[in-house]
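Follow-up to my earlier ticket, as requested here are the two runs.
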Amino acid sequence: MKYLSKALALILAIAMVATFMVACGGKKDDAKSDGGSDTAEPAVAGSEQTWKELTVFVPDSMDFKGGDGTFDPDDPKTAWLTDKEKATNYIKVSIVDSEDNAKNNVETTREMNKSYNPVDSSVKINDSVEWKGITYNASGTDCTMLYSVVGDKVYFIMAGGYKDNDDTLLEVLKSLK
């Protein structure tokens, strides 16, 4: 049973990475930001929306859908933000069970995408929350994978079409509590 659980966890991690690679869409222009503060005006227009256990800033340029369309459309810990004009650009926000789980997903992606030269990423929000992960460019598409412990939750982010310093992604990260 122990080996079955490990095999299932590995299969799930591979499936998540495959989903990330398939969905990793078109390239966005770079935008500079220092992470800002909670009291500053958002760099992009939008509003917070809630799906079960997640409350997240949703830019006006994006659609918001709860659940994980791949495995569980009612997953209370996952939501997708998809660009209205370019559906291949997305930000997937998940609450995961542990920081180790998130780290393993990042390392698996790093290993599977060696040819794209993934580089370590570290984004600090409000001088208190540090997001860690990788960023790389796959065939002209910016891809970012980040995780952080915020309060009592471990968040895992996959983004296609957004670099780790993109204002849209930064506003989403700032909203997670």
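Run two:
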Amino acid sequence: MKHYRLQRLFNARSGRCFDVAVDHGFFNEPGFLKGIEDMATTVRTLVDAAPDAIQLTAGQARHLQALPGRQKPSLVLRVDTANIYGRELPPSRFSTMIDQAALQAVRLDAACVCVNLFQIPGAPDITGQCVDNILKLKVECDDLGMPMMVEPLVFRPNSEAGGYLVDGDVVKITHLVRQAVELGADIIKADPTDDVSLYHEVVRVAGGIPVLVRGGGRVSDRVILERTQGLLQQGVHGIVYGRNVIQHEHPAGITRALMAMLHEKASVEDALGLVQGS
């Protein structure tokens, strides 16, 4: 049954997936809400641009799933929340999963669930909580035929950028990705490496498990499109971008551009034309 749901997630032409992440409000950080203050409007805009999937929480999935028709993007359900994104780690830290997460995903007709695996300087307790979450979720997902996307996140110190700045060291990323695979991930959503040309090492260590790459912080159109081109050349199975879409002046245009790169092998220049023509 997992295979059937994965068929809804990955594009039939290319075998790749573009998942737009708009689950940021789950984490209670004011800066995360830029561009998604009105979720109903945000979701409608993204649906019109037609990515393969939209990543939402249990409380916001209704904006996608209530829309009529068969052609809307698949739902990726975020199933955990944490309080570790500020400039200072709180004295009482948590990474908590919603109850009966896989069952909630089935009820919401999701194609996949997504759960974090954090590696944070000075917070090994959070890594332990994440491992516990994943081990519990795997059993539920196997029972109900729900694919489990694990998101290994290697943080730089929170004091540098409020806890959401990627440590792009390829060794750290590959080691955490390997742990996610060992824990039973059906899909990996991983950090980008500082040197994009090394990303094949992340793909290799995943051992055949599809790898989707996070977008990271907001950058220019050319930078994100060139990075995407480089990642695709390294063998990734897709991308999961959030702020580079939802905080964009033309979210529908950048979505169309990225979809063209993933599924139609568009060049960076052609993709830029799609953004500017939106």
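The only thing I checked on run two: Residues 2-276 form a domain with the TIM Barrel fold (CATH 3.20.20.70). Let me know what else you need.
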